[in-house]
Predict the 3D structure of the following.
Amino acid sequence: MNGLGNSTDLSANELMILSTFKLFPTYSFVFCGLTFFLSLNLHGQIAYEHVRNEAIYDFIDQLYSQHIIEVNTAIKPYSREQIADWLVEANKRREELSKAQIAELEIYLSEYSLEQNKAKEGRFELLAKDNPMRLHFLPPELTWNEGKYRALFRPVYGIRFISSTNANFFHSYGMGEMISYFGDNLSFYASFRDHHQSEEALALPGYLTQERGGAYKLNVQDQGGADYSEMRGGISYRWSWGDIGLVKDHLQWGDAYNGTNILSGRSTSFPMLKFHMKPTKWFEFNYFHGWLVSEVIDSSRSYFTPSGDFRSVFREKYIAANMYTFRPWPRLYISLGNSIVYSDIGFHPAYLIPFSFFKSIDHTLNRGIDNQNSQVFFNISSRQIKYLNIFASFYIDELSVFRIFDPDRHNFYSAKIGGSLRGWPLKDLTITSEFTHSNPLTFKHRLPATTFATNRISLGHYLIDNAQEFHISLRYNLWKASNITVDYSRARKGNDFQYNFNGPFAIDEFPILAEEIWTRELLGLRLNYYPFPNMRFFAEYQYSNVQAFDADGISAEDYLDQFGPKYLHGETNSVTIGIGIGY
């Protein structure tokens, strides 16, 4: 006998935990936490559907606008299991869908059959249907569904050809991905894509486009163009009211149809610890701590090797962020949160406390010296009226109440307001519109190691600071899981001010859009067709007029090069055709 009771009454797992507690008391809280999680009523798994799969996200948004399902649209990506649940709910109310929506629903139900614990159906199966392993050719993939283990393995490939006034080129990608579910609560997923852009890099740091950025290798072996690879994936553990995971992926925070202004998901992916909980219908919480890439050389840690080579080492860079979401009434979501980008103090446990106001922690840790870079944000979305979505999103980089009442000073913020009308007056018609405004120096910082960026690509709105954009789009669902979209946008950017205390103005007195240095007008027509799950064909015509102007001692040509690829310089017409297997 001892103070812990009779060991013969304990299970083998409990004995192992208690033994570890005795041997390693310093880390006993970790095992107590594991014991707590293992004692919960566990169900479901987490594997995320990438935000680049715009088709499924748009379809979920359609279902929400028709009041068939309800979604917190401020936080993306969604898990594949959650998407499957929404699709099953929509399938119960098929009579409320159009013929085009039903055709699209059938494709998605097949795509997410693994998450419904069903054998996946496909065209041209190689193995017998009673075999737990299925090999499909349309779409090409291997699935396994046996007992507590379910898995999907498939190749990924896509290519688009672009012919424009200024250039003809292509962008291709390929490799593969896998999703695995173990038991009732554990999941793994991995996705690797190798990209090649034949003429030039399409998303270098500083480009004002919505192309997803990459860590480029330029002109490899004098072949021209650019290459980059992207590895995403994660491991997640879920219980009845929450989940936790270690993932490397893209995030989008904030409501939008043409680029979010909190977390855009446009940068390279980065590894993070994620925590999510939804203990009630009216409250949800999201948190992550991420490891960013500063690309700022740390001279104290860089060195010469014995062979004479110089080894460069970057300064460490981290981000912590949280978002509280409240649902006071059905289909009204109010979210608020904060984040901090920090460096030069190492990986700090204070920022692992999920529910923190990080700026207050910063004031303690860095008292009397330079603070880190903190932000707050707010998002609201209302769909009380069927078919109508009205939303607003705010990102605040620096806020002083004294500036609010001073006409000569301004706070550093980005604001977006917009709405959509889906399924009315025509059942298959969608109309969306939004307006974005960002003040000077928003998303910027005076310290290169604490900018709101990773690999020098902004985590926020793609136009960054001192900019405005208006966007409107009309989309119509056609026959057999296809759609056509017409959209128009006009963007303009003012002086590219630097966060410099020694400049001609105080940092909060820079004029807002007083002088245009860059403008862009886009008119596009797109056609998408989804013949099979995870496969699409697309074509697009785009008229583009991108102009720049001499300002601040920099030429218009230099601004054009700074803000975009050459094929988008000046007035151009372009045609794009392509195919994607995976996104």
Notes: Residues 1-43 have pLDDT under 50 and may be disordered. DSSP finds eight helices and 27 strands in the chain. Residues 1-39 form one domain.
